[in-house]
């Protein structure tokens, strides 16, 4: 087995005069993660019992691409989370080893250190838990853990577990921890938008207008806006981290055909149809879109927000109150964007593509040149 040398990615950026903070994960650790200061702190979301170490990251990377973790050795995590698609799979919903499709679209694995609830309806509390669930899940990798562990032992993984966790005893928990370490290191912070924030890239007029529109809450007659940044917050473009505040009903369905979403986790009817607000980083690479992959293109997504909102009892207030024109109360919310404004928002979304992230050799398949 090849051993992968991880040399730390070092980015030190200063944004609007703030000092870079949260630079290092563990002072006496060999694995260092540095991120732009405008990403905010992250140390508090690394569990004390699972700091990221170079050996843990390397093991996690191998397990992520390890087909032996599936029932018929045909599928790894990377089958549905492919690096060149920003760790998605290009499908509306993702079929597992038995060809049975789940109800959800694969999610990009990016900047997970700035999230607290995982999966579309928020049912997973930690990356560790969400990392072993697909292995067992009958519509995903459909493997039994005793078999998986035996196959890893046959491959000689004991040594790697020894190096990463100081024990040769392979357990489900340690598999989850190693996978989580690898995934927490999947940080995308070198898109054109980041380069612009660091003063290294001059945006086109359309990109600049798109950024403005994206982050502006409209006030009819005074301020034009696309309202996106109300939910896709700040440079991370993901939802709020606290509790379930980052879960919203963005008007995909009316009450009759709406899926449970967060209600499945909380049991609260007010949470019906609320889903996790995903990060839009690398969004141009992760089609199709939404929890069920219903939109093929970003143009369709923008049309949805502009003029395709479905009314329902749990439709988010930020959508109801976000219009460029005065609408009568109870009227179906619309944004009333011009064609130029839609193009501008699209240009901004394309700025979020990070070529370095999707080609970074440290995140790629250690076993072959294949992507998965
Ligand atoms: C058959 C396709 C498939 C496979 C294989 C698969 N996943 Fe996923 N992954 C998905 C889908 C679909 C979702 C969304 C699930 C949901 O919302 O319930 C997801 C969600 C996730 C998330 C949550 C991301 C977030 O931002 O909330 C993580 C983490 C994850 N997968 C990690 C893994 C790991 C680790 C493996 C390998 C052990 C793996 N996945 C294997 C399809 C897959
Ligand atoms: C009320 C909060 C809210 C607002 C406002 C909002 N979004 Fe979203 N967005 C979400 C949520 C929640 C999802 C996931 C919904 C789902 O799949 O059920 C989402 C999904 C998306 C997706 C698909 C992501 C993926 O991985 O499939 C894109 C693209 C997107 N939004 C772009 C935008 C743009 C552009 C705007 C502004 C025009 C915007 N959003 C405004 C909450 C919001």
From TrEMBL:
GO terms for molecular function: cytochrome-c peroxidase activity; electron transfer activity; heme binding; metal ion binding. Gene3D superfamilies: Cytochrome c-like domain. Keywords: Heme, Iron, Metal-binding, Oxidoreductase, Periplasm, Peroxidase, Signal. The keyword Nucleotide-binding does not apply. InterPro entries: Cyt_c-like_dom (IPR009056), Cyt_c-like_dom_sf (IPR036909), Cytochrome_c_Peroxidase/MauG (IPR051395), Di-haem_cyt_c_peroxidsae (IPR004852), MauG/Cytc_peroxidase (IPR026259). One of its GO terms (cellular component) is periplasmic space. Binds 2 heme groups. Coiled coil: none annotated. This is Cytochrome c peroxidase. It comes from Marivirga sericea.
């Amino acid at each position: 087995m090849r051993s992968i040398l991880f040399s730390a990615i070092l980015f030190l950026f200063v944004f609007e005069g703030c000092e870079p903070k949260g630079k290092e994960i563990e002072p006496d650790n060999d694995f260092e993660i540095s991120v732009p200061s405008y990403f905010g702190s992250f140390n508090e979301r690394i569990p004390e019992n699972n700091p990221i170490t170079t050996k843990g990251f390397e093991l996690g990377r191998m397990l992520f691409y390890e087909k032996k973790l599936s029932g018929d050795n045909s599928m790894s995590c990377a089958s549905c989370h492919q690096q060149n698609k920003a760790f998605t799979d290009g499908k509306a919903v993702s079929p597992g080893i038995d060809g049975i499709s789940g109800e959800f679209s694969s999610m990009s694995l990016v900047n997970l250190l700035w999230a607290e609830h995982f999966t579309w309806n928020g049912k997973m509390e930690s990356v560790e838990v969400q990392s072993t669930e697909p292995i067992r899940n009958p519509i995903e990798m459909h493997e039994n853990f005793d078999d998986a562990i035996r196959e890893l032992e046959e491959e000689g993984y004991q040594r790697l577990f020894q190096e990463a966790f100081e024990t040769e005893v392979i357990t489900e928990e340690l598999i989850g921890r190693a996978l989580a370490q690898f995934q927490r290191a999947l940080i995308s912070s070198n898109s054109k938008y980041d380069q612009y924030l660091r003063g290294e890239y001059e945006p086109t007029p359309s990109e600049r207008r798109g950024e403005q529109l994206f982050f502006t809450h409209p006030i009819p007659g005074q301020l034009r806006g696309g309202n996106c940044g109300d939910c896709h917050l700040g440079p991370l473009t993901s939802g709020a981290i606290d509790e379930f505040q980052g879960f919203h009903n963005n008007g995909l369905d009316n009450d009759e055909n709406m899926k449970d979403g967060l209600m499945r986790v909380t049991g609260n009817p007010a949470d019906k149809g609320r889903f996790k607000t995903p990060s839009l980083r690398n969004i141009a690479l992760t089609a199709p879109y939404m929890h069920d992959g219903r939109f093929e293109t970003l143009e369709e997504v923008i049309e949805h927000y502009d003029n395709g909102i479905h009314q329902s009892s749990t439709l988010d207030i930020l959508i109801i109150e976000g219009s460029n024109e005065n609408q009568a109360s109870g009227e179906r919310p619309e944004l009333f964007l011009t064609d130029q404004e839609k193009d501008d928002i699209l240009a901004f979304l394309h700025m979020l593509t990070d070529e370095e992230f999707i080609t970074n050799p440290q995140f790629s398949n250690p076993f072959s040149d294949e992507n998965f």
